[in-house]
């Protein structure tokens, strides 16, 4: 197990896991493409350079932080920033309207069922203001005990706030929880919360996680336990 950047943390590996906290975008559903298309449309309308590659760096960032990255230091009045954020979200909401359970990433439904059977508590802790409607559209609201986003707390990811809040809402401590994340800022946030973390996808983004997996397809709770709770 790699603890590259957090070797000084007290080891929590032998503490039995009782809860799973999921990031949403890129973990449960692939809205990354929707976000890309809507940011690209906005950037084109405003004559600002943007690309699919640039969008990758926005994973996990709040809408406002994403816009500030896209603006690359351009200074705009607050009213203009608000208008851009609202326009982006309007485009994004029209994509969300079309969402169904077909938009769940492979393996999510089976893994959620597996967690229920194992008696593991579940939360979603997202940077997205749209988290509630997306979870509902995906048809998994009844599989999730707590849904929260960075607007419930003071600081967005990479601060630990949203994961600590989700754990508290579950009635668990950080040492009880494992986070699933696809973004560098999310892995950093989970680390800062002193939680164990599984990175999904590109190791260039999530290499600081305890374990990196391509996605949730084929993943079962006993795999996670064997890796993070050996001997428990
Ligand atoms: C997620 C995505 C980000 C997105 C953010 C805000 O974390 O990974 O790409 O910018 O949510 O989403 P929202 O739905 O509030 O615009
Ligand atoms: Mg994500």
From TrEMBL:
Catalytic activity as recorded in UniProt: beta-D-glucose 1-phosphate = beta-D-glucose 6-phosphate
Reported cofactor(s): Mg(2+)
EC identifiers of the protein: 5.4.2.6
Any one GO molecular function term: beta-phosphoglucomutase activity
Transport is among the record's keywords: no
Alphabetical UniProt keywords: Carbohydrate metabolism, Isomerase, Magnesium, Metal-binding, Phosphoprotein
Domain of life: Bacteria
Gene3D superfamilies, sorted: HAD superfamily/HAD-like (3.40.50.1000), Putative phosphatase, domain 2 (1.10.150.240)
Record carries keyword Transcription regulation: no
Record field: transmembrane: none
UniProt record similarity statement: Belongs to the HAD-like hydrolase superfamily. CbbY/CbbZ/Gph/YieH family.
Protein known as: Beta-phosphoglucomutase
Organism: Phormidium yuhuli AB48
Primary gene name: pgmB
